[in-house]
Amino acid sequence: MDSDSLIEARGLTRRYGPNLAVGDLNLTLRKGEVLGLLGPNGAGKSTSMKMLTGNLAPTSGDVLIRGISLRESPQLAKRHLGYLPEQPPVYPELTVDEYLGFCAGLHGIGKKQRAEAVADAKRDCGLTHMSSRLIGNLSKGYQQRVGLAQAIIHRPDVIVLDEPTVGLDPIQIREIRSLIAELGKNHSVILSSHILPEIQAVCGRVMIINAGRLVYDAHIDAHLGKKGLVAQFANAPAASELQFTGVQKVDIGPAGRFLLELADGADPRAELVNAAVQRGWGLLELRLETRTLEEIFVELTSGDATLREAA
Ligand SMILES: Nc1ncnc2c1ncn2[C@@H]1O[C@H](COP(=O)(O)OP(=O)(O)OP(=O)(O)O)[C@@H](O)[C@H]1O
Questions:
Q1: How does residue 310 score in pLDDT terms, banded at 50, 70 and 90?
Q2: Location of each CATH 3.40.50.300 domain in the chain
Q3: Distance from the CA of 279 to the center of ligand 1, in angstroms?
Q4: Distance from C-alpha of 75 to C-alpha of 63, rounded to nearest angstrom
Q5: What is the CA radius of gyration of the chain?
Q6: Looking at this predicted complex, what is its ipTM?
């Protein structure tokens, strides 16, 4: 386990009777990461989150939180975690202050420090002006803020958020997303969602789960799903002349187009344009062909739903 890793899940598996909900999930969350767990309904996101936070025992496998085993020392390990389940665990009959004070007590924050912890969590979640309101009278968006505030009240290293925007209206969704992005500056975050733009808006890394299995893990950056360069020329060169830096393979595609497969992070466009001008190839078209996260998601998650049963 490297020193930057906050959560490390090893071989996490959960069965419900004969059905596999999550199979052999391995995951590492490092300091400063905002990781999105993406998957269609029933993929196993909630089951994974519950196991990662010690709220559901895995059938096999273990989770280390800052190197502490959830199985062996659950209380110690959970000190470093804040968790917002799919249904926010708020008490509608309490005020925001009463509820957060109660949560602070549950996390072992001493009476003297409680007022400060509550004030900090309210400030960070934009709740200060709602302090004495009954939670049951707040909008869903504000109730979700209260849910977020209880997840960070003990200043954990990691916050785990299960579908935090479900059931909110578009304005509330925007507010909660920007709040999560803000919280991500001081905490590492694991967030589950079945909404692609949400993951793209908030996360730096995405893992796609389908039928209980991890099928994709990538950083969300300019190179996400990059396939390569597509180029077309009036006076086509030989394929061997297109071996620029980072080009791994040159294929001749439909309509005389060349497809250049690229190494991770490579972008030889400037080199290619220079060569085309100098050697008179007559460049007609040049583009980076990328697959969007949506295309990757659809490709990886549509199809055989019976995998789970077969596993
Ligand atoms: N308590 C349970 N008993 C039996 N099966 C369960 C239980 N909880 C979940 N499952 C099954 O395990 C699988 C994964 O469920 P899970 O709730 O983890 O998925 P999810 O990705 O969070 O879905 P959603 O987005 O719909 O919440 C599903 O097939 C679900 O029906």
A1: very low
A2: 1-80+156-220+292-311
A3: 59
A4: 13
A5: 24
A6: 0.95
